[in-house]
Design brief:
heterodimer; A: 172 residues; mainly alpha; 8 helices; 69% helix; B: 398 residues; alpha/beta; Oxidized Rhodanese, domain 1; 2 domains; five-stranded parallel β-sheet; two-stranded antiparallel ribbon; 18 helices
Chain lengths: 172, 398
């Protein structure tokens, strides 16, 4: 069966904007993603090396900010679990479910895997500095007109355009 | 009034809300094409600007929406999460993420979305992001100075620029429309499409019309507080506005006969310092800000209460009562002559010499009695301090 076409981008944008608005109205906070990665990372470290976590300032600050209880009882962890389910259902309906390594036409699978790993690593570090990623800092920050959020948004775009030339072989 | 968490929707139910919102988020991202790294990075090589279109449309829709909700008093801006600003951390973090975008082809949200439909590169990306957080955590002592530098608190962009919210929002919408236009031109050029990128078809006209309407609507939802504070600077407007006034005698009577007048609720708009020095029974310290906040304004909504605004002078009372009335609160009264007048006529009452009419005799009798008793009531009243606020700003962010 053929893949269904993607949604009109402006329509998708309006839908996403309204979802973000409803989220802010109900919960008082925006959407996010990288926070869930952080919660999982903290959980793993606290489980695998509890004494190390207890002695490290980052984990200590995390528990201070997020209160007691498991880091996985976190709003973003539930939200990202929802994203996983929602995207799967959408892919199912649109006939896009299949195991696939997507890469540019002039690159190898090995390079693509290395790039994905390095890119993920950079996002893991960058989203801590930015106090959120494209969803939590840039998009949600724009909705509430936060100075920091919008600065992060422009920095992400500026950074990507600045480095795009050097990594063009990966994609075109 | 929003946010509905935590008083209307409990913190536990909120997690279920998160799951449902996440599912919708995932569906929208996947349907928009965010599950493909090639489509995502198209933005940076000019062959596919889907991300830009979806992202900016969503941003301006939510932004105008937040403004509208706040304007109509449906959302308490003081309770929602506003991303804190640590300038250098934000800029450097953004650059690192931008680099990660062209190297990895995803951002965290889209990687989850792509992994869900089986993209192997996305799974690897998620593993990388996970390691990245641990790298940051382990190197935290090293990163902390930068991470914490230049903390500006939680300013909005328009506050930093010192311009009204409406002008900033308008500029953002126009910026987005301009970006869409440029994107369409670049996209066609890169993909060698000869057609004009924007044509006079109903589709493009519709988008342009909605865009212009959104830009204009930035001015329809001005910030309530700024708008109303400015409104009451107009002397003629304040003078001619219909505000219900209570005479000092009536007010004094109400204070004396608390049993019959137990519906009295006084809102004291003086400074906290003056309020602590002397406060009337059945009064609460209130401020201009309180009128716009979710929890304090529950008091203003109480029905069957005689709500009286007091301040030192009647003019301030009038201004505050006008703002409250404009915000939709009903049956707000003010004290004639303000507290200054009340002090002069009641608390420091000097009997009329040689009263002639029965009216004057009655006034003398009543006010002397009030002058004797009310100070005792004031003595016995323990000022409660500012109106209590249990709700704290929501903790959000990643």
């Amino acid at each position: 069966m053929e893949e269904t076409k993607y949604m009109n981008p402006y329509l998708a944008g309006v839908a996403l904007g309204l979802l973000l608005l409803i989220t802010i109205y109900i919960t008082g906070r925006g959407l996010g993603a990288s926070g869930a990665f952080k919660s999982y990372a903290v959980t793993v470290v606290e489980t695998v090396a509890p004494s190390h976590a207890a002695a490290s300032k980052f984990y200590e600050d995390y528990s201070k900010d997020h209160g007691s209880g498991s880091p996985l009882m976190n709003w973003l962890v539930f939200e990202v679990t929802g994203v996983l389910i929602g995207a799967f259902l959408s892919g199912l309906v649109a006939n896009r479910l299949n195991f696939k390594l997507e890469k540019g036409p002039h690159t190898t699978a090995k390079i693509r895997i290395a790039g994905a790993l390095a890119g993920g690593l950079l996002w893991g570090i960058g989203s801590q500095f930015g106090r959120g990623c494209t969803s939590g800092a840039a998009l949600s920050g724009m909705a509430v007109m936060s100075f920091g959020g919008i600065i992060t948004m422009f920095a992400i775009f500026a950074g990507a355009y600045a480095f795009a030339y050097f990594f063009r072989k990966l994609w075109i | 009034m929003g946010p509905l968490v935590p008083d209307i929707i409990s913190n536990n139910l909120n997690l279920i809300v998160a799951l449902v919102i996440g599912i919708l988020f995932g569906v929208i991202l996947e349907q928009a094409g965010f599950s493909s790294s090639k489509k995502l990075v198209g933005l940076f090589y000019g062959y596919d600007f889907t991300v830009l279109r979806v992202f900016f449309t969503a941003g301006i829709v939510a932004m105008i929406g937040v403004m509208a909700l706040a304007h109509y008093g449906l959302l308490d801006i003081n309770l929602i999460y506003i991303n804190p600003t640590f300038i250098w951390s934000a800029v450097i973090g953004g650059f690192i993420m931008g680099l990660g975008f062209v190297v990895g082809g995803f951002c965290p949200g889209t990687s989850v979305c792509a992994a869900a439909i089986g993209k192997i590169d996305a799974l690897v990306f998620i593993g990388g992001a996970f390691l990245g957080v641990i790298v940051f955590a382990e190197g935290y002592p090293l990163f902390e100075p930068l991470y914490m530098a230049a903390n500006l608190g939680i300013p909005t962009f328009y506050q930093i620029l010192g311009i009204p919210q409406s002008i900033f929002a308008f500029t953002m919408v126009v910026f987005a429309l301009f970006a869409f236009w440029v994107a369409s031109i670049v996209e066609n050029k890169v993909n060698h499409i000869e057609r004009a990128p924007i044509r006079l078809t109903p589709y493009y006209l519709g988008i342009a019309a909605i865009g212009i309407l959104m830009a204009a609507s930035a001015f329809t939802f001005p910030e309530r507080k700024a708008e109303l504070t400015q409104l009451v600077e107009d002397t003629n407007f304040v003078q001619s506005y219909q505000v219900n006034t209570i005479s000092t005698d009536e007010f004094a009577l109400c204070l004396l006969k608390t049993r019959e007048c137990d519906k009295l609720q006084i809102f004291d708009f003086r400074s906290e310092e003056n309020y602590k020095k002397m406060s009337l029974p059945r009064s609460i310290l209130f401020s201009l800000e309180n009128m716009f906040e979710k929890e304090p304004n529950l008091l203003l909504n109480l029905k069957h209460k005689l709500k009286v605004f007091i301040a030192d002078d009647e003019w301030t009372e009038r201004k505050m009562a006008i703002i409250a009335t404009e915000l939709g609160y009903k049956k707000i009264n003010i004290l004639k002559g303000g507290l200054d007048g009340f002090k002069e006529q009641i608390l420091n009452f000097k009997p009329i010499e040689n009263p002639k009419t029965t009216d004057e005799i009655d006034t003398n009798r009543f006010r002397s009695e009030a002058k004797r008793i009310i100070p005792v009531l004031i003595q016995n009243h323990k000022p409660t301090g500012p109106v209590e606020r249990k709700l704290k700003r929501v903790i959000g962010g990643c």
